[in-house]
Structures are given as structure tokens and as C-alpha cells.
Amino acid sequence: MRSRVSRIGFSFLLLLAVGARGDAATLNVAVGGADADGCGTKTAPCRSISRAIANATPGDKILVGPGRYGDLDDDGQLGDPGEETGTFAVVTIDKPLIVQSVEGSATTLIDGGGLDLFGVEIAASGVVFGKAKKGFTVARAGRSGVFIGPQATNVTVSGIRSVRNTDAGFVSKSPSLVLRGNVAEANLGTGFTFAGAGSTFTACRATGNGGDGFAIAGENHVVKGNVASANGEAGFRFAGEANVLTGSVAAGNAAGLRVFSGSLTATGNSFFGNTIDGALVTAAGITLTKSNIFGNGDFGASNCGVRTAGNGSVTLDKICFGAPTGPGPDPADDVCGTITVLEIIEKVLKITPKVPL
Amino acid sequence: MSMLRFVVWFALALLVLAATPAAPLEAAVLQVANNGLDAPDCGAKTAPCRSITRAIDEATAGDTIVVGPGRYGDLDRDGTLGEPNEEGPEDGALIVVDKPVTIESSSGAVWTIIDGAGFDRTAVRITASGARFGRAKRGFTLFDAKDAGVSVEETASNVVVEANLAVRTGTGFATSGAGTGALVQGNVASTNGAGVALRSAGGGIARANLAVANTANGFDAGGSGQRFEGNVATGNGIFGFSATLSGDTVLAVGAAIGNRQGVFGGTGDSFVVTGLAAFGNSEGGIRNQSTATMSVTASNLVGNGPKGLAGNLNCGTLNGTFALDASNVFWGAATGPGDDPADLACDLEVKDATTFDPFATKAFKIKTKVPAF
């Protein structure tokens, strides 16, 4: 009887959910549109994403056509006809909405225009911003490209190219975020800066950013199948407890991995050709397993695949150091500091995250 | 068969055999890896080279060089090339491809990096006809080289540059010199000075590339006979596509989104634009400055302007002195060019120099296939 009641209750909730979804509207935005009360229909799309957000109700979907959105006349002020109207960011999503492009990131640009604002602010829980092949390019913001505000949880961000912003590509302190298939490229700050707890990062790429590729603080984050390449500081930087790094590649950064503090489970990663160190660890008791570590440490000729400093200590297990003899001089990488090496793998491990170009 | 006939046939067979050229030596595959060492005869799987330059030295025409993941270039970033295991030491370029070889990565562009280390160099200079640099899913990242990411130069013809990512270089991908038939395909040029510049005298093709957030132009045509197919230029600082000091230039299918001006026709012989989507370029969709013959057809010009030369108007076209044929274009409204939500046909210097009649009454379907997500 109890299970029957549960089933009825569940069905009722499902009906409510379906009903709610059935009421959800789709609003359209296009460069040929015009902002007006009630804009957003297919025949009368809005011109700005901000206006469509204002016209939407929670649960609605906003579909944005190809083109440029922002300070259209480049006069340094938002709010002219057809322009976005944010005051903290060019576009602020302050309702639980789905915001996607029609054609994808290559042809849909949210232009920060160098204004002293974020590109996009997500200020509500439950927002879905972008999707594979339905994302945006967010560029030239005077601050970070995409900012997820502290009050917004359970936010999903996908298919976004955040490029050439003055600070980070993506930044948040909120918990329970999902970032999938995004690119942070040539931002002056970090690629991805996240604190909070319990977020997942999958198939993202950080390339050529001035700071770290991924700077992860807080707890219980899962960073899986990402690539950090050619960033000015660490490819992946961690400071917090119970974080996970797996299936990822750090190549050509200053350091591949930087474990500043806390605990990290790191397995199945590659650290190739990072200038100073493959991994630099200042936290105690870190274990790296099933990973490739070679071609690192050419700057200063340290040849350090893994280095510890301060109280840092590392155990390395099932590691390919680039030579069958294990850690040592070129062509292998060496280990430098308080490091215990367990099993050596002779053959290079195949680790191939699938990230966007 | 008579004896005589047998002898004749036998002799003919011998002649045919003698005339058949010896089978060419089988092309070799040379390996380069971050755990390799530059040494005489390096390149075997068990003894890969550390530098691409060394592998090129070891290769012969027709060979393939497969490059493993990691970083290549001025490894200690001290500004001097040619130190052990580094690229170089050729002046002005990290890597010079002076043989008709194929160079590809084993794992793709995003973690196979040629690092210019911020110096005034070209990352990869190609001077040999028939060379190939990168292929689908097997390209490179060209990073922080103040000159070009990849430059096809001198008389190099029939060169292919494919599936690479150029970030923070002077020009992402460039051709110059007297070569013909360069194919620049499926690359991404992001945050460079310019994205893709085809300037060889003999012409080339840029196909399905993405140029995004470059400081100057997304795509540039000079020289003669350049063709742009299926490319996208988004958020570039000046023009999405530009033809200046060029001969005949063709833009067949493409998108110019959110650049200062979408397409610019400067001095040249002719510029034919077909199948262009120019959306949201801040100063106008298409500007015809002084090209003697420029035409635009089967294209969508929507949401361009309102900034710039024509006094803050929403100009789909900005025409200077010469005639511009912009018939069969969709201007954002079924009623043709006009005020918002349509785009205008703006004549800057000579009244009615733009032909826009007949206009299209609905948008064209324009599909590009750039490396996008």
C-alpha cells in the first residue's frame, strides 16, 4: 500500500513537471529583431538577449540567432535601442532559463566591447547556458567572460568559447555547477576559476590564458577529460579537499599540475612539456597514479617531472616517466623532492580527452 | 606459337620490363616525441627525435613525420634557438619545412604545441612544394609567435595546412611569395593579429576555417586568385574578410559576424561574394572602397551597423566610388533594404552606385562547416 501511495505521489509530481514544461515558452532573439513588449515570437524576435530574459518566465527557453549582441554602437554605454542592458554584465540571466544559440558558438557573439563589465552573469539557480553546438562566443569583456554568481546553484554551462577577456574566461564560487565542452582561450587571467563545492568539469579546454588554465578551490570537484595547454601559470591548480583530476592533459603550461593544499585524487592524466615542472606539490600526501609525466622542466633545466616544496610529499604509482628506466635525465623526467616512486610504466599510456578545437 | 613469335614476344617483354622505372623507395615515418632525443638517425619508434627540425633533417621527400604530444620550440624560452633538442636555429622561424614531407601530430592540435615563446619569429615556415602541415584531427597549436603561426613562402606550391589552432601569433596562417595552390583548411585562428592571410601571387584556397577575436582582419586576400570557401570570421577587430591589393578574389559561402566591417573590398581586380551571412558587424556588412568590380549575391545582410562612416546608420552595404552590384540579397526584411529591422544600402560618395534590385524576400540558407562546437 505504501509503495502504491508512493507511485501515485510520484506520478502526480511527474504530471506537475510535465505540465510545467508544457507551459514553458520559447522566445526568439535575432539581429533582425526589435525590442518591444511581448517580443520573442518567431515573427517578432527580440533584438537583445536582455529583453528576451525580461519577457521570459522561469523554465522558458531563449533561442538566440547568429550575430553580435552587446554595445552595438560601441559608444561605451549599454541600453541604446537593441543593445543589452546589464549593469554588472553585458547580459545577466537572473531567472532559471535555458539560453541557447541557434547555430553555435562560432556565429553567435556576446561582445563585451571592453566595457568594465562581465560578459555574462548567471544570477539564478537552474540556469542552462549554452549546449553542445548551441553555445556562444563571449569575448572582450572588461572583466571575466562568464560569471556565475554566488546565489546561483545547479547551473549548467556548455558549448561556450570565452576568449580575450580581461580577467578569467569562467569564474564562480557557487556549488554544484556543471561545465561541459567549453573553451577558455587567451584570457588575461585564468581560464576557469572555481571555488564552491561539488562541481564537475568535463571536456573543457583552457589554452593560452595568462594565469592558470583551471584554478580549482573548494571541495569535491570532479575535473574529468579536460585539457590545459600553453597557459602562463599552472595547467590545473588545486587548493581544497577531496578533489578529483582524471583523464586530463596538461601540456606546455608553466607547470602542468599545482597542488597548493588539501587532498587530490589524480589518476589517468598526462603532463607533457610543461616549462617549469610537470607537477609542483606543496600539499602533503598527494598520490598520482596511471599517468604520463615527461618532457617537463626545460626552463631552468630542472627536468623535474614532479617536484615538491614546503611540506609537500608525493607518491607516484604506475607512472610513465618517458623512459623504461624510470625517473632520470633526458629523455626521462626526474623527480625532485619528497617523492616515493612505486611502480614504473614503460609504455606511454593512452589518455585522449575529447575537447573542442 | 612459332619460335620466331616467341622470341619477339620475349624480347618485347624484356623491353617493357627495362622501361618500367624501379619502384620508389617506400616513404618512411619518423617519430618525434617529448621523450625523444635529437641524435643522428633519430626518428625510429624506439628512438624518436626531440625536435621536429631534426626529424625534417633526417627525412627525405615523401616521408611522414609524426609528432607526439607536448611542447616544441625554444624549450627554455631564453630567446635562443638551436640549443640541444630545441627547434631551429634558422633565422626567424622555429621550424622550416624545406622538403615535401607530411608533418602531423599523433594526438591532435590541442596538446601538441609549437611555442614561439613570445619572440619575433614565425613558428612554422614552409618553403617546399607539396608539403603538408597537419591533417584532420592531427594538427598543432601554434602559440605566442610574434610573426606567423604557419607561413607558406617563396615558391612553395600545393601546400596543405590543416586542422591547426593558432593562438596569440602575429598572423595565424599566411601565404606569400610566388607559390600556387595552397590549401588552408579546417584551422582555427584565435586572438592573433590577423587570422588567415592569403597573399601568394599564384592564389590559394582557405576553406572551413574559423577566425575569431583577432585584432585585425579575420581573413585577408592579396596577391591574386584567392578563394574563400565556408569560412567564419567572428569578432575580429577590423574586417571579417578583406581583399586589398589583390587580383581576382572569390568568397563563396561564409559568415562574417560581429566584426567591425564584415567584408571589405579594397584595391583589386574583382571581388565576387556569394553566399555570405553578414550579421551584426558594427560598421556595416559589406564595404566597397575602390574595387573596380565587386558583386554580392545570394547573401544575407542583417543587423549590421549602426556605428561608423555613414553616420550611425544600419548599413548592410557601405559603398564608395565604384558600382556595387548587390542584387539578390536578403536585407533582413521582405521589403528589401531599409530602416530596422532591415539593413540599408548606403552610398557614401556616389549616389545610387549600389544596385540592390531585385532583392531577395527571404533569408538564404547558408551553411558553413568550421571547427565549431
Name the shape of chain B in a single word.
Answer: elongated
Multimeric status of the protein: heterodimer
Number of strands of chain A: 31
Cα-based radius of gyration of chain B, to the nearest Å: 25 Å
> Mean pLDDT across all residues of chain A, rounded?
93
User: Which class best fits the helix and strand makeup of chain A?
Assistant: mainly beta
Strand content of chain B: 35-45%
Quote the distance from N terminus to C terminus of chain A: 55 Å
**Biggest beta sheet attributes of chain A:** 31 strands, parallel
Q: How helical, in percent, are the residues of chain B?
A: under 10%
Strand content of chain A: 35-45%
Q: Give a quick account of the main beta sheet of chain B: strands, pairing sense, barrel closure.
A: 31 strands, parallel
**How would you sum up the global shape of chain A?**
elongated
The pLDDT mean of chain B sits at: 92
The low-confidence runs of chain B, each spanning 5 or more residues with pLDDT under 50, are 12-23
Number of strands of chain B: 31
CA(first)-CA(last) distance of chain B = 70 Å
Question: How much is the radius of gyration of chain A in Å?
Answer: 23 Å
> Biggest chain pair contact, residues each?
A-B, 67 and 63 residues
Q: In DSSP terms, counting alpha (H) and pi (I) runs of 4 or more, how many helices of chain A?
A: 2
